[in-house]
Every structure is written in structure tokens, then in C-alpha cells.
């Protein structure tokens, strides 16, 4: 009588491999961003039309709501003009700059920070503020603050999205945005663990790196020996499994033919 336990073990191995394939398939990355652009309908407001901007307490008279709803904040050149105008009528330049920065950053709820497409558009817009300090030199600290604020918030938003959905770590869009943050020293804060790196390499089909560089070249001789034994056992197991399945199917067909006769 043929032993049944090895067959059960082999069936279990086959089932686990099937589950692993299904598991990895759920990490299939999205290929691209949706093509959306930051709309600018030239809905500008002119600060000269608003009174009392020379007030020492500028924050109390500044048209915050109108400014955020306008297209002024979307355009670097327009922001520079607005800052220059305020500075020309109000001597407190630090206060003036702080008000404009807060309206464009903290008070601005335009961006959808839970959408990767919106975050991509945000990065493109934020990078327009990453200019040489010699350009608009008087207002360059404001532009640098706006840029750092939004890039930092993009990195934080990516961390939050990954924490809520681990699979997003393997999404091309997330990897792209994280890399943009890292390149500008706005790190995303979340490092990849061993399992994540393995899954990422499998998705990216880096077989040579996985099996040659990491699994073979970076391991001891004892590990290589154990690995070879495991591979041989697995291969023999599959041979036995398919042999058993073939014999079982053959017997069922013959029994059916015999009953028919």
C-alpha cells in the first residue's frame, strides 16, 4: 500500500505555492497617473482693490478667503507681485510674508492629499517654488518655505496612505513620488523591511539580483547546501505528486471502462 502522508505534504506545498502566487498578484502596481492639470482660469484678484492693508495688524484686514479662492496663489510670478505690493504699503515685511505663506499652505485646502493623482499634481506645482534664491531674491524665503511645506506634506501623506494600505508600497506611483521626495531631502520616513524588498524585486522581475546576488552570492556554503537539498526534495516531491495523480486518474478511467463493459 502506498504511503498517503507524503502525498498530503505535497498537496499542501502545491496549495501554499498557489496561495503565494495569488498573494503576490495583489501587489500588481498601477502603471501611470491620470492626466490632470492644475487649472488656472486667470481668476486673479488685485490687492490694491482692498483697503487698509497698511494696518499694523495686517492679518485682521487681509482678504484671506478671496485670496485662497483666487488663482493668485497658483502662480509664482503673481505671488511675487502680491508680496511686493504689500511690502510697499506695509513696513512689517516679516508679517506680510508670514500671512501670504500661511494662506498658500496651512489655510489652503485645495489639494486632495489622499489621492495619488492629486499628490503628483501637487509635486509638479510645488517644484515651481524650488528656484534659485537669486531670482526674486527679496521674496525667496517665502518661496522656499512654501516648497518645503508642501513637499514635506506629500511625504507625510504617502506614509499615511501606505499605513492604511500596505499594497500601495508596490504601486509605481507611490514609488515614484517617494523617490521625488527623497531626491529633495524630504524623506518619506517609512523604510522597507525584508519582505517588502523581496516582493518589490519579484514585481520588478529582478531575478538575477534575487537568486544570484542575494540568494547565492551573499549566503554561506551551509545555506547553499541546505537550499540545494530543499530544491531536490521539492523536485522529487512534485515528480511523486504528478506520478500519483497520473496513476490515480489512470485507475479511475480504467474502473469506469470496466463498469461500462
Helix/strand layout:
Elements: H1 5-25, H2 58-61, H3 64-69, H4 76-89, H5 93-104, H6 116-126, H7 140-164, H8 172-183, H9 194-203, H10 207-214, H11 221-260
Helix pairs in contact: 1-11, 4-5, 5-7, 6-7, 6-8, 7-8
Give a structural overview.
By secondary structure, the protein is an all-alpha fold. It has 11 helices and no strands. The chain has a domain at 47-193. The protein is 62% helix and 0% strand. The protein starts with a helix and ends with a helix. Mean pLDDT is 79; it is low at 1-5.
How many DSSP H or I helices? 11
Element order, helices and strands?
Answer: HHHHHHHHHHH
Rg, rounded, reads 31 Å
Biggest sheet architecture = none
Q: Which stretches are low in confidence, meaning pLDDT under 50 for 5 or more residues running?
A: 1-5
Which descriptors would you attach to this protein?
single chain, 261 residues
Outline of the structure:
The chain contains 11 helices and no strands.
Amino acid at each position: 500500500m502506498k504511503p498517503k502522508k507524503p502525498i498530503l505534504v505535497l498537496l499542501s506545498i502545491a496549495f501554499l505555492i498557489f496561495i503565494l502566487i495569488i498573494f503576490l498578484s495583489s501587489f500588481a502596481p498601477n502603471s501611470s497617473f491620470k492626466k490632470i492639470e492644475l487649472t488656472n482660469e486667470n481668476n486673479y484678484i488685485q490687492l490694491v482693490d482692498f483697503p487698509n492693508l497698511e494696518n499694523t495688524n495686517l492679518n485682521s484686514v487681509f482678504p484671506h478667503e478671496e485670496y485662497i479662492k483666487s488663482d493668485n496663489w497658483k502662480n509664482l510670478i503673481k505671488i511675487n507681485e502680491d508680496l511686493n505690493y504689500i511690502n510697499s504699503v506695509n513696513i512689517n515685511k516679516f508679517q506680510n510674508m508670514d500671512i501670504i505663506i500661511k494662506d498658500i499652505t496651512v489655510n489652503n485646502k485645495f489639494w486632495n492629499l489622499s489621492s495619488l493623482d492629486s499628490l503628483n499634481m501637487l509635486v509638479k506645482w510645488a517644484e515651481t517654488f524650488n528656484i534659485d534664491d537669486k531670482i526674486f531674491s527679496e521674496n525667496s524665503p517665502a518661496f522656499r518655505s512654501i516648497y518645503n511645506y508642501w513637499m514635506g506634506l506629500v511625504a507625510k501623506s504617502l506614509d499615511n496612505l501606505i499605513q492604511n494600505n500596505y499594497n500601495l508600497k508596490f504601486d509605481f506611483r507611490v514609488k515614484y513620488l517617494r523617490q521625488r521626495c527623497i531626491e529633495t531631502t524630504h524623506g518619506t520616513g517609512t523604510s522597507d523591511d525584508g519582505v517588502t524588498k523581496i516582493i518589490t524585486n519579484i514585481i520588478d522581475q529582478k531575478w538575477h539580483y534575487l537568486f544570484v546576488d542575494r540568494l547565492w552570492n551573499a549566503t554561506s556554503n551551509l545555506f547553499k547546501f541546505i537550499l540545494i537539498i530543499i530544491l531536490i526534495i521539492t523536485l522529487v516531491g512534485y515528480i511523486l505528486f504528478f506520478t500519483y495523480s497520473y496513476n490515480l486518474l489512470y485507475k479511475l478511467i480504467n474502473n469506469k471502462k470496466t463498469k461500462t463493459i
